[in-house]
Amino acid sequence: MDTVTPFITPSELHASLGSGAWPLVVDVRRRAAFDSDPRLIAGATWRDPYLVADWEKYLPRHRPVVTYCVHGHEISGNAAAALRGSGVDARYLEGGIEAWRSLGAPTVSRLDEAAVPSGPGKPSVWVTRERPKIDRIACPWLVRRFVDPLAQFVFVPASQVLPRAAESGGTAFDVPDVRFTHRGERCSFDALVEDFGLEDTALERLARIVRGADTGRLDLAPECPGLLSVSLGLGYLHRDDHALLGKGFEVYDALYATCRAQAGAPAERHAWNHPS
């Protein structure tokens, strides 16, 4: 017998969006329902609800799971119960994707070109240039938090990006002549937000910060000079690109949290004046 609430509300789930606290969200709509809808909850991946035993073994055991279907009825509830029976910390989303949409929470488009959502044991692979600084850290953060929670990232010399992407069946980004790259004055982060149809006020704010810091237009947002400075500093501290990526994710988690707060209420200010 379950000892915890078997479901989570859309508002509770939405509170952790874009952060390291985001659970692994699994779309378990029947195949026909999934195929008829070009969008998922942002940060989710799809799995067949009738094959839980086949894909649950690929789930990271350290991460809670939230399943959802169309309306949050038997399909997602049964999948979550099956996962709990296998020792997974799993709940289902009350009201399903329709309740999520009613909340106005972001969804993401499926793009076959990027192999998203990825299948069991086959995470999407994203390849870019080594020694990332701003855009090449912001883009992986966006992909992992909003597009494919299981995505893997490969950093190689510039000349090897396209061959490595072709070899791995992955998606090259932030290099010339690929889909997800700079477009005029907009950067690769903007391209991902646009093409995946991510409509979110906080992401719009964050995109402006990334764009300004990455393209040298530090006047686009007050945070741009700070992001540039922190990004360069992380590069000095960490020579391993994946270690650098992990630290960078914490920066973007924090920036996105601030952007969400600013989108919903007057910005919190911090000031301290020495008494005269």
Could you describe the 3D structure shown?
- By secondary structure, the chain is of the alpha/beta class.
- It folds into 2 domains: 103 residues, Oxidized Rhodanese, domain 1 (3-Layer(aba) Sandwich); 153 residues, no CATH class.
- It has 11 helices and 10 strands.
- The strands form 3 sheets. Strands 1-6-5-2-4 form a 5-stranded parallel sheet.
- Strand 5, helix 4 and strand 6 form a beta-alpha-beta unit.
- The model has no long low-confidence stretch (mean pLDDT 93).
Fold topology:
Elements: E1 7-8, H1 10-14, E2 24-27, H2 31-35, E3 39-41, E4 44-46, H3 52-55, E5 65-68, H4 74-85, E6 90-93, H5 96-103, E7 107-109, E8 125-129, H6 135-147, E9 152-156, H7 161-168, E10 171-172, H8 188-195, H9 201-215, H10 224-237, H11 241-264
Parallel strand pairs: 1-6, 2-4, 2-5, 5-6, 8-9, 8-10
Antiparallel strand pairs: 3-7
Primary descriptors:
276 residues, alpha/beta, Oxidized Rhodanese, domain 1, five-stranded parallel beta sheet, three-stranded parallel beta sheet, 10 strands, globular
Low-confidence stretches: none
Count of discrete alpha- or pi-helical segments spanning 4 or more residues: 11
Rg result: 19 Å
Shape: globular
Major beta sheet, specifics? 5 strands, parallel
Please, what is the average pLDDT?
Answer: 93
**Which strand order does the major sheet show?**
1-6-5-2-4
By helix and strand content, what is the structural category?
alpha/beta
C-alpha termini separation: 63 Å
Helix content: 40-55%
Number of domains: 2
Portion of residues in beta strands equals 5-15%
H/E topology pattern: EHEHEEHEHEHEEHEHEHHHH
Number of strands: 10
